[in-house]
Amino acid sequence: MMRSYLKVRDECPVCGEELHHHRADDGPAYLTILIVGHLLAPLILAVYTHWRPEPLVLAVVFSVGCVALSLYLLPRLKGMIVGLQWAKRMHGFGGVR
Predict the structure, then answer these.
(1) Cα–Cα distance measured from residue 93 to residue 63, given in angstroms and rounded to the nearest whole number
(2) Which domain holds residue 67?
(3) Helix (H) or strand (E) holding 67
(4) What is the pLDDT of residues 62-91, one digit of tens each?
(5) From CA 5, how far away is CA 43, in angstroms rounded?
(6) Phi, psi dihedral angles at 4 (to 5 degrees)
(7) Distance of alpha carbon 72 from its chain centroid, rounded?
(8) Number of folded domains in the chain?
(9) In terms of C-beta density within 10 A (0-12 exposed, 13-18 middle, 19 or more buried), how is residue 44 classed?
């Protein structure tokens, strides 16, 4: 469905379904922030209370983890949003009724 990291193809290469009218907008970014925040916040607290690492080490390790997890999740969540719009026939996917 994707032709590059976050660009959705104009149509599906397999079935020919038009995808150019999707409206994912900021939804994948909000979901990514929500998921990454809910995963890493308790983990940061647990690591800090259990091992007491240096603040700089903690910041570097979790910053890299946050960026890596965000970059991994963002295209997958965008595909999920576009797929949900297709399944629910939203934003032009349903055609004329």
Answers:
(1) 38
(2) 27-87
(3) helix 55-87
(4) 999 999 999 999 999 999 999 999 999 888
(5) 28
(6) -145, -160
(7) 7
(8) 1
(9) middle
